[in-house]
Write the structure tokens for this entry.
Amino acid sequence: QVQLQESGPGLIKPSQTLSLTCSVSRGSITTSDYSWTWIRQHPGKGLEWVGSIAKDGYTRYSPSLKSRTSISRDTSKNQFSLHLSSVTPEDTAVYYCARIVDDYWGKGTLVTVSS
């Protein structure tokens, strides 16, 4: 089955850019008919969709985060990445990468924004 693994720094300072990478195994990000997604969960709150990238590289973003969000991919490594600029403490959350349609998720990584 498909496996996803998030990686990136656990602590960043306000105004910096948060960059996370999702490594995918047992499933290709370029041939799968499904989108690959970033989702976050603030402490004690529900899940929030951040954005997705399709097999052709087409991206979609949450309207509330669109101005600060970019999702890219490295097809040679079968990875896709999240970049969230100008972070504030309100961006502190557990970030997940996932293939939502068939419920494949990474374990999540906590990112704390603090000076």
Summary: Residues 31 and 55 are 6 Å apart (CA to CA). The two ends are 39 Å apart (CA to CA). The first strand starts at residue 3 and ends at 7.
